[in-house]
């Protein structure tokens, strides 16, 4: 491929301002109903739907277009339980004092603790890894740039795609997460970034009221 080969930009369909506003509102109305669910049952999830959501995540922008991410799809009961045991070990340390008083006070309205039963009960755990080395083509081991930012955007795309497919989801980030490399068979040059738990909400599942409070526009945006 040439160093700076290009193809024509494919224009979006023409829309009026009113149509653009309506499209933005439709997306907002859809995405604002996403909620973290800690009560996920064992009902199966269709593999194709998950793979399409992963492909959507793979369209995210990334530094130098190196796409420095890997999504490990964990369905094995044994592997899920190993993740739970290791995660709960870290969480017990966290909740017993490592986090500090201020952090624990901030978490209190959400009702979280070291019990991570959803890691066993959910049909799927997606372990997301950031690749420090890689590149666009198989076998490359070049420096990846803006890895954390790129993987963060991809995770956002993935959550939106899973929500569009009406899966219940939960993000989990035990710290440290190095145990995931061994369980998922990933190389040492990949950094575990996040777990996304995927499935269907159990009957009677609840969410904390605190989690429904979102900052208004004037608190999160400013026009300069």
General description of the model:
- The chain is of the alpha+beta class.
- It has a single domain (36-203), classed as NADH Oxidase.
- Helices cover 39% and strands 17% of the residues.
- It has helices at 17-31, 47-57, 77-98, 101-107, 118-121, 147-164, 179-184, 217-220; strands at 40-41, 69-74, 124-131, 133-134, 142-143, 168-172, 190-201.
- The strands form two sheets. Strands 1, 2, 3, 6 and 7 form a five-stranded antiparallel beta sheet that branches.
- Helix 2 runs antiparallel to helix 6 (147-164).
- The longest helix is centred in the middle third of the chain and has 22 residues, at 77-98.
- It is globular, with a radius of gyration of 20 Å.
List the helices and strands and how they pair.
Elements: H1 17-31, E1 40-41, H2 47-57, E2 69-74, H3 77-98, H4 101-107, H5 118-121, E3 124-131, E4 133-134, E5 142-143, H6 147-164, E6 168-172, H7 179-184, E7 190-201, H8 217-220
Antiparallel strand pairs: 1-7, 2-3, 3-7, 4-5, 6-7
Helix pairs in contact: 2-6
């Amino acid at each position: 491929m040439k160093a700076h080969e290009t193809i024509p930009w494919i224009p979006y369909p023409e829309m009026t301002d009113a149509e653009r506003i309506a499209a933005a509102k439709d997306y907002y109305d859809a995405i604002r109903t996403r909620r973290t669910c800690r009560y996920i049952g064992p009902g199966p999830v269709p593999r194709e739907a998950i793979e399409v959501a992963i492909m959507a995540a793979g369209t995210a922008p990334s530094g130098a277009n190196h796409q420095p991410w890997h999504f490990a799809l964990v369905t094995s009961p044994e592997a899920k339980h190993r993740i739970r045991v290791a995660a709960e070990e870290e969480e017990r340390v966290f909740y017993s004092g490592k986090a500090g008083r201020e952090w624990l006070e901030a978490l209190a309205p959400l009702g979280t603790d070291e019990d991570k039963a959803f890691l066993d009960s959910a049909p799927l755990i997606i372990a997301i890894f950031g690749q420090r080395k890689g590149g666009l083509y198989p076998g490359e081991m070049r420096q990846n740039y803006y890895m954390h930012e790129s993987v963060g955007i991809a995770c956002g795309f993935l959550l939106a795609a899973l929500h569009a497919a009406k899966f219940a989801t939960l993000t989990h980030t035990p710290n440290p997460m190095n145990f995931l490399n061994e369980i998922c068979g990933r190389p040492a040059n990949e950094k575990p970034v996040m777990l996304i738990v995927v499935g269907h909400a159990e009957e009677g599942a609840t969410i904390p009221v605190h989690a429904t409070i979102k900052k208004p526009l004037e608190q999160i945006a400013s026009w300069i």
